[in-house]
Automatic annotation (TrEMBL):
The chain crosses the membrane at residues 173-195. Keywords: ATP-binding, Cell membrane, Kinase, Membrane, Nucleotide-binding, Phosphoprotein, Transferase, Transmembrane, Transmembrane helix, Two-component regulatory system. Residues 274-470 form the Histidine kinase domain. PANTHER family: SENSOR HISTIDINE KINASE YPDA (PTHR34220). GO terms for molecular function: ATP binding; phosphorelay sensor kinase activity. Its EC number is 2.7.13.3. GO terms for cellular component: plasma membrane. Coiled coil: none annotated. This is histidine kinase. It is an enzyme of class 2 (transferase).
């Protein structure tokens, strides 16, 4: 059964049971209340009969005393009320076992009859007959008071006898309602625990699997057979996903291993074609010969080429210092100056000598300077300038590489910000800027280290914000002067 079906079945069932218990208690309360209301209505009916009889007798007395139309109208109104009340007594029965209200109704009729006879006698001038009729009406009114008192006492005795029964019935219904509420509460707790366990246990298993995968264990223990609800489906999908991740990681590992082997083969192939030591020794011999022949500039150029080649053939996965990178930039500039001569100027500024010990990937700054030469100032006739500036700001080393060359289009800037490789039409034999930026992110384990600003004809500024380690921050800057 799915979780949705469990909730849709058991929650309405509990609500229905609670509603049934509430309806039962309300019905019991209404029953008791209706019985008390019946008793009160009977007593009020009797009391109203006594009040109407007294009013009838009083209005009869006033009419016999003055025989005015107003008094007669009042007498007729009281007689009409008395007639309607007598009808109510007869229709309702208003009796309980041996307590009957029919005698009271008969006496009310007698009161009306004697009142009528006294009125007629008074109107015909027979005062004696009118007085006799009034005395008879007064006697009937006295009987009515006594009858009402008997009826009230009879009703009180009747309900006094029934009161323990009503109270017992009320207590039974209350106890039944309380028992049902307890049963419903226990049942609700059991259902809640059952539904919650069907949710929490599979979730805990999934959390355990996720922690295993997070810790690097791609072969976690398989969970127990899951249910057919939504969480069971989620568990099976998660297992399938872990299998897919394991297969994907294995494929990636094989691809990386393949790439590593290919690079090793390529490196061995290059090393087999050119012996670096032989090349360096040859360049040193040529440099000495040029020095002996008085060609000092040629000798310096050859030394720069030798140093640059030696640096490029080192292990690129080992970090270097900013000082090493700046040295290679100077060697590279010396080679390029043989071509550009006085058309180009290099400026290197280091604000704090401790920055020279900043560790970064090899071939980070020299490719950027090379790009400035090839794409920035190559077409300038003069006053070309390339600069490298290193600044210290709290825990960050800011390195700025700038030129006043041709600049870049917005499309090229956007491509570099996204670290996309250059298209084939713009590629060259050097290391691309996108490659440099990506290696910096991998080396420092952070993103957003780079900011670019450029516009056509106004040069380019590349800003690198590299985090400093505690060791680099505390390095003694005087060590570079010794």
């Amino acid at each position: 059964m799915t979780i949705r079906k469990k909730l849709l079945v058991f929650i309405p069932l509990l609500l229905l049971l609670v509603s049934g218990v509430a309806a039962l208690l309300v019905q019991s309360d209404l029953l008791v209340r209706s019985r008390y209301e019946q008793m009160l209505e009977r007593m009020l009916l009797y009391q109203r009969a006594e009040d109407l009889a007294e009013a009838q007798l009083a209005s009869l007395y006033r009419y016999l005393a003055d025989l005015k139309p107003k008094s007669r109208q009042e007498l007729e109104q009281n007689s009409a009320l008395l007639t309607r009340h007598t009808t109510l007594l007869k229709e309702s029965g208003a009796s309980l076992l041996n307590v009957s209200a029919l005698p009271l109704a008969e006496q009310l009729l007698s009161l009306q009859r004697f009142s009528g006879e006294a009125r007629i006698s008074a109107e015909s001038g027979s005062e004696v007959e009118a007085l006799r009729g009034y005395e008879q009406a007064e006697a009937v009114s006295s009987y009515i008071r006594e009858e009402v008192q008997l009826l009230l006492e009879g009703n009180m005795e009747f309900y006094q006898e029934r009161r323990p029964q009503l109270e017992a019935q009320t207590e039974r219904m209350g106890a039944l309602g309380s028992a049902l509420l307890v049963v419903i509460t226990i049942l609700g707790v059991i259902i809640a625990l059952w539904i919650s366990r069907s949710i929490t246990i599979p979730v805990s298993r999934l959390a355990g699997l996720a922690r295993e995968l997070q810790s690097g264990n791609l072969n976690p223990p398989r969970p127990l057979p899951s249910s057919t609800d939504e969480l069971g489906q989620l568990t099976r999908v998660f297992e399938d996903m872990s299998v897919g991740v394991r297969e994907h990681v294995e494929r990636e590992r094989q691809l990386l291993e393949k790439d590593r082997l290919v690079k090793e083969l390529e490196l061995k192939s290059l090393q087999s074609q050119i012996n670096p030591h032989f090349l360096f020794n040859t360049l040193n011999v040529v440099s000495r010969m040029a020095m002996l022949e008085g060609a000092g500039k040629s000798s310096d150029l050859i030394v720069s080429v030798s140093s640059l080649l030696r640096y490029n053939l080192r292990k690129l996965d080992e970090p270097v210092t900013l000082k090493d990178e700046l040295t290679q930039i100077r060697d590279y500039f010396a080679i390029q100056q043989a071509r550009f001569r006085d058309r180009v100027k290099l400026t290197i500024e280091v604000e704090d000598a401790s920055l020279l010990h900043l560790r970064l990937p090899a071939l980070t700054l020299q490719p950027l300077v090379e790009n400035a030469f090839q794409h920035g100032i190559a077409d300038l006739e003069g006053d070309a300038e390339i600069g490298v500036k290193a600044l210290y700001n709290k825990n960050v080393a800011t390195i700025i590489v700038w030129d006043n060359g041709a600049g870049m289009s917005e499309e090229t800037l956007e491509r570099l910000r996204k670290m996309e490789p250059a298209p084939a039409s713009e590629a060259h034999s050097g290391i691309g800027a996108a490659n440099v930026f990506r290696r910096l992110e991998l080396f420092f384990g952070r993103s957003h280290l780079l900011s670019l600003s450029s516009s056509p004809g106004k040069g380019t500024v590349i800003t690198l914000k590299l985090p400093l380690s505690a060791k680099e921050e505390k390095h003694d800057p005087d060590s570079d002067r010794r």
